[in-house]
Amino acid sequence: MNTDSRIRRGLRSSRSSAWRFALPSAALCLIGVAQGCDGSGDAMGVGGSGSPSGGGSAEGGSDSGAPVDPEEGTRAVGVSISAIEVNQAVGIRLVDGGRPVPVSERRAPIIAGRPGLFRVSVETAEGHRVRELEGRLTLTRSDGTTKVLTDRRLVVRASSDADLGTQFHWHFDETAIEEGTTFAVGIFETSDEAPAGASSGSRYPESGSAAFDEWADRLELKVVLVPVETGCGSKLLVSDEALEGNRKYIFDAFPLQKLTITYREAWRKIEGCPSGVGEIAAEALAARIEDDAPDDVLYAALSGPGSFAEGGALGQAFGTVGSAPYSGNGAGPDGVGAIIVHELGHNLGRPHPWEEDESYPYDDEGGYVGWGYRRSTRMLVPSDGRHDVMSYTYPTWMSEYTYRKCAEFLKDHPPSGL
Q1: Is residue 418 included in any domain, yes or no?
Q2: How far apart are CA 410 and CA 258, in angstroms?
Q3: pTM above 0.85?
């Protein structure tokens, strides 16, 4: 049976459930990298190396462990909150221009049980006196218990999105935002010698707390990587380090609370040199059928460079949406992790930018402006020149639109066993 008929047969047999219809029998992804799939990508910690231009650390605030009264002290004078953002892969503005952003206007959802970055931008009044101020983030759970996080930094000027050192910010773990959690932010003086003037706008909300309006649905992916050996090219290096690199990149990019990723112990083998990527990609489908895998498990085929006749630079990728094939050259500065995310994105129902409908907010190359965040590196992904991960134009990262659409798909197709 040739490759095309094997794939079509697998797709026809996969339409018995919602997961299998939209997630074809395998997430057909071929990766070719001599060093294995390290999932590397370019992210940046803005504001310099330990010396942000704003005069404060880019490391962010923390929980000191000691009880903190969130309202004790003097509110900051001449400093007002201009923006509040939660970034769990893409930036989600809760406050913009000093005004709350309605939930209906958010570009992406906040996910309960997912780690991320909380950052607060400030404006400074004319004649601002440079001094240290303290930001306090109060998280209140549905049972009434609270946690106060603090961040002290030298406020030199108004905040810049490109400089974490000019923003009060906190890296938070998966326990920070639960279903029903609310928040409040205040900026306080740290000295008894505060300048004269008004402290208007230094707390959000003005009183009480605000809702995250988070999604509490279980969002999970399960991925099996299938090593494939062929009669030509270099053999793929399989290692725990490479697996962990892939896990980090995929989890950083997708709207997930949990990612399970493993290597398939038994390799697939092709005698001779395949004529193209499709023959290797079909091995993921064959492995999935052989393993009788559950509906919601995605299989991805990996092979070393030069492992098929057409060859490839950094790698090649192949994926499907329904029965429509997609292919792309994996060579690019974002590395292998972006290839896997791209192909898994197809299996979560996302086409290329030029195949999107009129609701797609970016151009045909997926160009957008928006700051991303990689939890594994605790760094921002720069917005300049960035393109949607579903495009072929590098560098790429998850756009707000694609992130939301993937979250909607995962919400509609919960993992089995729940």
Answers
A1: no
A2: 12
A3: no
Mean pLDDT calculated for residue range 112-124: 98
- What 3-state class would DSSP assign to 395? coil
Query: Phi/psi at 11 (nearest 5 deg)?
Result: -65, -40
Same domain for 395 and 255?
Answer: yes
How big, in percent rounded to 5, are the helix, strand and coil portions of the chain?
A: 20, 30, 55
- DSSP SS3 for 401: helix
pLDDT exceeds 60 at position 53? no
- Going from the C-alpha of 194 to that of each of 53, 73, 119, 133, 232, the distances in angstroms are 23, 11, 24, 10, 72
- Helix 3-13 and helix 277-291: axis angle, to 10°? 40
Phi-psi region of 208 (alpha: psi -120 to 50; beta: other; left: phi over 0): left
Exposure of 296 in the CB half-sphere (CA atoms within 13 A): 17
Do 339 and 385 lie in one domain? The reply is yes
Name the maximum alpha-carbon separation found in the chain: 82
179, 211, 243 — which closes off a domain? 211
d(CA 203, CA 198): 12
Q: Are residues 105 and 156 in the same domain?
A: yes
CB 118 within 8 A of CB 95: no
Structure tokens at 233: 């090219």
Residue of 8, 15, 27, 2 whose CA lies nearest to 406: 27
309 or 121, greater pLDDT? 121
Q: How many CB atoms lie within 10 A of CB 385?
A: 10
Whether 365 is covered by a domain: the verdict is yes
Q: How many domains does the chain have?
A: 2
Phi and psi angles of residue 150, each rounded to the nearest 5 degrees, phi first: -120, 155
User: Which structure tokens are listed for 73?
Assistant: 């002290």
In a domain, 389, yes or no: yes
Q: Average of pLDDT values for 112-132?
A: 96
